[in-house]
Amino acid sequence: LINGQDDTKRPVILVIGAGAIGRGFLPWILDLGYHRLVFVDSNRDIISQMRERGSYISYRVRNNVLESHRVEVSEAYLPEDFDVSKFADATACFICVGPRSAAAAGKLMRGTQIPLVLAENDSGCVDIVKSVVGHNKVTFAVPDVITSNSAPDDLLLKDTLSVITESGVLFMETEIAGLHADYKALSHDELLHTQWVAKLYIHNTPHCIAAYLGSLVGARYLHQAMQRPRLDECVAGAMQEMNTVLKMNWEIPHSFLDWYAEKELSRFRCELLFDPISRVAREPLRKLELSGRLIGAAQICLAHGLRPKNILLGIVAALMYEKREDADTHLGFMRRALSQRDLNHYILGLRSGEALDLILCEHFDMLSRELNSIVNEEEAA
Amino acid sequence: VTDFKLASTLALRAVTEAGRGLMEQTDRTVIATKGAHRDVVTEADVEAQALILKILRQGQDFPIIAEEDPGAASLYPDDNQPRWFVDPLDGTVNYAHGLSLFSVSAGLCVGSAFAVGAVCLPALTELYFTQDDQISYLNGRPQKVAPALYEKSLIAVSFSGKRGDPEARKRQYQVFGALNDETRGCLRTGSAAINICYVSANRLQAALGYAAKLWDVAGALAVARCAGAELFVKPSQYGEGVDYIVGSPAVVAAVRARCSAKGAPIGHE
C-alpha cells in the first residue's frame, strides 16, 4: 500500500531512462498520488537499488531553497527483463534517454499503443521512434529545466540515488488522456519555433560550452566553471552571440529571448544544482553534429555575418574534450591522427572551403592559444 | 611488440592525405596497364603511394607491400610478422572514368590476422578506420554489423583484373548470377575495399571476392573484423592473393554454399 491505496491498481507511468530528467525532474511534475512509476534503465546499479529500496530522494531548487521529495518506485527493470505486455494499459511512457538511444528505447514499446513522450533534446527522434513502435502516438516534449544526474556528496551519503532538479516546466505538443501531471501543452509551431529554438541555442549551446571550458580548468560541477570570471564571460558571450542571431533570424519576441538568456545564465551559476561537467560535456561528437548546438550554432552566426568568437572557443574546447569513460573518447585519437582539414571534412562534415572550415583550418592554433591563456589565467587566479 | 595505436594513427593519416592528393589531381589519364584492360595505373596511383609510404615509415619498421611496387613479398604470409599492405588507389578504372567509387587503403596484418585498417573514399567523404585493432568507425561513428537474412541481402562481388582460367571464370560468373537472382541483388562496384567497407556499415550484407590481392582488401578486412563481420578468407585457388566472403554470419554461410554449388568455392575444398 502506498498512501493508503493498493499500489498495483494505480495507473502506470513508464519511464525509460532513470537519469536526470527521468529520475530527477519528472517525479516533481507527475501526480504521484494518482500514478505509480515503473522505471526501465540499462544501469544495473540504479535498477538494483530501486528494487531493493523501493524509493529514493529527489531534490528541487526553488527560489534558491532546496526542497526534498521521496519518490516511490513501483517497479524497476533492466531493458532485457522488461516485458511491455505487462503494462499494456499504462497511461503514458516517457522516454528520457539521449538521442543515440531513442530507437532502442522505442523498441521496448513495440506491440502496444501506449502514448510516448520524448523528453530528451532532439525533435528528430520523434520520426525515428514512430517508425520503430509502428504507431503515431509519439509526442515531442521540451523540458525547460536543468537537472543534475547526481548530487553533492553529503546528499549522496543519505541516498546514493539522490538527484537535484530545478523547478522547471515541461512543454508538450499533445495532451495525453488520463495523464495527471503539471505540464504545458503548446501548439507544434510554438513548441518547435519558440521553446525548442530557445532551448537548443540559448540553453544548449552555452550550457555545453560552459562544461567544455570547465573541463579544461578541472571543474567538477558547472557552477564551479561559472565561478571563474573569464569562463563566465565566455559563456555569457556565447549566449549573447546566439541571442543576437536568433533575433535576426527568428520571429521570436526579443523580450522573451532576453528573459530566456538571463534565466539560463542564473541557472548555470546556481550553486545548489551540482550539475556534473561530465554529464553536460558527454558525447562531444554528438554536440559537434553539423546541425547541432555547436557547429550548427556557429554556422547560423556566420551565415548572418557574425563571427562567433566565444562559440568558436567552445568548439575548440569540445574538440579537446577527452575523458576515458566517455563514449566519444576516440575524438582525441582522431584529432591527433588527422589534419584539421581532414577532421573538419570527414568527422565534422564541413564542406571544404566553407567559412567555418576555413576559420578552423586557419585559426585553430590561435583559438587554442587563446583558450590556454584563459585557462592559465584562471589557474593563476 | 606491435604498437597498434601508432599503426592506426599512421594509417588514418596516410589514407586521408593520399585521398586529398587524388582529389586534387586533375589529370586522371591512364599511364600504364598491367596485362589486362581493367588493371590500369594513373600518375595519381604512383604519387599517392609515395606519400603513404613516407607516412607509414614514420612508425615501426615493418615491411610495406604496396600495389605499385610489391617486391617479392608473399601475398599470403604464414609467419607472425607484422606487414603493411597498401593500395594507393583501389578502383582506378572508376577514378579514371570520373566515377566516385574509388578508395585509398592501408592495412596492417600480423601474419594472416587483419589487425589495423584505414580506408578513405575521398570523393564520397567517407573514412572507415579502426582504432588500434579494436573498434571500427565510419567518419568517427562506431559501426557494428547487424544480423541479416540471405534473401533480404544486398551483396557485392569482385573478380580478379586478370581473367585466369576461362572455365573457373565462367563458374564465378555463375555464382554472380545466382546471388543476383536469389537476393536483393549483387553489385560489382569496381573496388573490393569499398564492398567490404559497405558491409561494415550495413549497406551491404556480404562481399565476395575471388583472387584479391591483399593490398586491395587488408585495410578493409580489418575494418570489417572490428565491426563484428564474419571473415572467411582463404589463399586463392584462382590466382595470387585471397578469396574471401565477409558479412553477416548467416549470409556468409549462404554465399559460401552457393559458391561451392556452382563449382567456384572459396579456398580449397
Strand and helix layout:
The complex is a heterodimer of chains A (381) and B (269).
Chain A: E1 12-16, H1 20-29, E2 36-40, H2 44-53, E3 55-62, E4 65-72, E5 75-77, E6 92-95, H3 102-107, E7 116-118, H4 125-133, E8 138-144, H5 153-158, E9 163-166, E10 169-172, E11 184-185, H6 188-216, H7 222-226, H8 229-249, H9 254-269, H10 277-280, H11 284-287, H12 295-303, H13 309-319, H14 331-337, H15 340-347, H16 355-380
Parallel strand pairs in A: 1-2, 1-6, 2-5, 3-9, 6-7, 7-8, 10-11
Antiparallel strand pairs in A: 3-4, 8-10
Helix pairs in contact in A: 6-8, 6-9, 6-13, 8-9, 8-13, 13-16, 15-16
Chain B: H1 4-24, E1 30-33, E2 40-42, H2 43-56, E3 64-66, E4 82-90, H3 92-96, E5 103-110, E6 113-121, E7 126-131, E8 135-138, E9 141-142, E10 154-158, H4 166-182, E11 185-187, H5 192-200, E12 206-212, H6 214-226, E13 230-235, E14 242-247, H7 249-261
Parallel strand pairs in B: 3-4, 10-11, 10-12
Antiparallel strand pairs in B: 1-2, 4-5, 5-6, 6-7, 7-8, 8-9, 12-14, 13-14
Helix pairs in contact in B: 1-2, 5-6
